[in-house]
Write a structure and sequence with these properties.
mainly beta; six-stranded antiparallel β-barrel
């Protein structure tokens, strides 16, 4: 039965469609001048500015819409291009681990001096098994390259590996299929135009249920990442 359950899970990882090559238009949004409703359109870019003033002086707030340019599913048996991934640690009595890697591109790097106000990641949860909230929170890691950089085991362990930069519960935090949002501002790196984020699930203690699966580079359910920062 466990082998059948494992086979079903691996099928779920692949049903979104095998290998992909995505070419997408980048969109850069910078926010609105306070007291002005002017919006400047330049090709596919929308540029606005908003001056924010506080005790430390004034800064301009920018909003960047990142573009998904690649995704991989990760497990104890590989790290491969895919349009789906599941988030589980210690799945079944074999204690198998699963996760995903997302690569986003932004048109201009966030300055090192900027303050990141928010980063809203939206993922489509297309499968929620059992009490899927037991796989929450999700753990987010910064990767230096477009590959899987955490360790995925098929032997007993004690949960997701150390080194994650933030752990977040989805909103809404339920097992209903649909869009979920994550606030991941601590996972956004500055001075880079390519952001690679690895995502793991919580330890479900060797059962064969209680996990989520996500679309990661599906044209109908593409992840979105909106970053707001002040500089």
């Amino acid at each position: 039965m466990e082998k059948q359950g494992q086979g079903a899970l691996e099928y779920l990882l692949l049903i979104g469609g095998g290998l992909i090559v995505t070419a997408v238009t980048l969109v850069f949004v910078i926010s609105v001048n306070e007291g002005s409703s002017d919006v400047v359109h330049s090709g596919d870019n929308t540029v606005r500015d908003l001056v924010i003033c506080g005790l430390d002086g004034c800064g301009t707030q920018y909003v960047v819409n990142a573009t998904i340019t690649g995704s991989r599913y990760a497990s104890y048996w590989g790290c491969n291009e895919s349009t789906t991934f599941c988030t589980i640690t210690d799945y079944s009595s074999n204690n198998n681990d699963y996760g995903g890697v997302l690569r986003f591109t932004i048109p201009s790097a966030i300055p090192s001096s900027a303050v990141i106000d928010s980063a809203k990641l939206r993922l489509y949860d297309y499968y929620a098994s059992g009490t899927c909230t037991k796989t929450d929170p999700l753990y987010f890691y910064n990767n230096s390259a477009y590959t899987c950089q955490t360790t995925y085991n098929s032997t007993p362990d004690s949960g997701p590996p150390a080194g994650y930069v933030t752990s977040v519960h989805p909103v809404p935090n339920n097992c209903t299929i649909g869009w979920k949002e994550f606030e991941i501002k601590n996972a956004i790196e500055k001075d880079k135009t390519t952001l690679v984020i690895e995502i793991r699930g919580n330890d479900i203690a060797g059962v064969s249920t209680n996990y989520r699966c996500w679309y990661s580079n599906n044209s109908s359910y593409e992840p979105t990442l909106e970053i707001t920062y002040t500089a």
